[in-house]
Amino acid sequence: MPFIIVQVRTGAETYNEVKTDIHSILVSSLPVEDGLSFTELCQHYSLQNSGRQMPFQQLGYATLTDLLKTMWDVVRIEKQRCYLRVKATAK
User: Fold this and answer.
1) Which backbone phi and psi does 37 adopt, to 5 degrees?
2) In degrees, to the nearest 5, what angle opens at C-alpha 30 toward C-alphas 64 and 74?
3) What is the distance between the alpha carbons of residues 36 and 64, in angstroms, rounded to a whole number?
4) What number of other Cβ atoms are within 10 A of residue 17's Cβ?
5) Which of 39, 57, 76, 90 has its CA 20 to 30 A from that of 19?
6) What is the rounded CA–CA span in Å between residue 85 and residue 59?
7) Is the pLDDT of residue 29 over 90?
8) In this structure, are residues 60 and 14 in contact, taking their beta carbons and an 8 Å threshold?
9) What is the CATH class of 15-84?
10) pTM, whole model, 2 decimals?
């Protein structure tokens, strides 16, 4: 009998899960030229995760900004807004 693996989130997200969620939120919000405010990002995160708040403190960060700064390869921060970091393609 084959096994089916189902991933159930318990509310104790890992850094990589949160980073993946943030990336997904930013991608799905395209083409928003003005990016998302921190409030909008947190609202989208909560909607996508059954009402759970962004767990930056549980991950060891004092502020959301501190967490987002570590995700420099996914998020660009300007004036309290989050933008999808788009990698340049080689020509």
Assistant:
1) -70, 165
2) 45
3) 13
4) 14
5) 90
6) 22
7) no
8) no
9) alpha beta
10) 0.75
| Nearest partner of 22 among 80, 58, 71, judged by Cα | 71
Q: Whats the size of the chain, residue-wise?
A: 91
Return d(Cα 9, Cα 11) in angstroms, integer: 6
| Residue whose entry in the numeric block shows the structure tokens 């967490």 | 67
pLDDT for 59 beyond 60: yes
In single-letter form, the type of residue at position 60 comes to G
| DSSP tag of 31 | S
User: Under DSSP, is residue 81 helix (H, G, I), strand (E, B) or coil?
Assistant: strand
CA distances from 60 to 36, 57, 66 (A): 23, 5, 9
pLDDT at 13: 81
Q: Which of 89, 88, 10, 77 is nearest to 37 (CA)?
A: 77
Helix residue ranges, H only, 1-91: 15-28, 38-48, 64-69
The Cα 24–Cα 46 span in angstroms is: 13
